[in-house]
Amino acid sequence: MDQQRHTQKKIENCNRHTFPIISTHLAIEVHGAQVYSHRVFEEFQEEVKYSIGTCKSRGFTECDSLEVTTVRDANRDRNYEVTYWPDTLKATCSCRMLERKGILCRHVI
Ligand SMILES: [Zn+2]
Description:
Layout: H1 2-17, H2 27-35, H3 38-54, E1 55-63, E2 66-73, E3 78-85, E4 90-93, H4 97-101
Antiparallel strand pairs: 1-2, 2-3, 3-4
The structure holds zinc ion.
């Protein structure tokens, strides 16, 4: 139990006093480094990298107060539907990563 507390304090201290290495320098990656723990940021950073290399918008529709974009994920060979509400700045994706892991997916990014 003491060892577990010690490890947890070490992780919290590292998160508080160090900044992860930014690879793309996109504003969204920098923001992720500021709001996520290092462990979660590593997963988010992978999503940022994949968003650049493998995802492309395939269509966009606007309806009432929301925008729907079809995103082609070449890595997974599938299309995903991203819904965005400009009024609240909220977005969801049909892959449901945000709901499952609390991280924005490559399709929304
Ligand atoms: Zn997604």
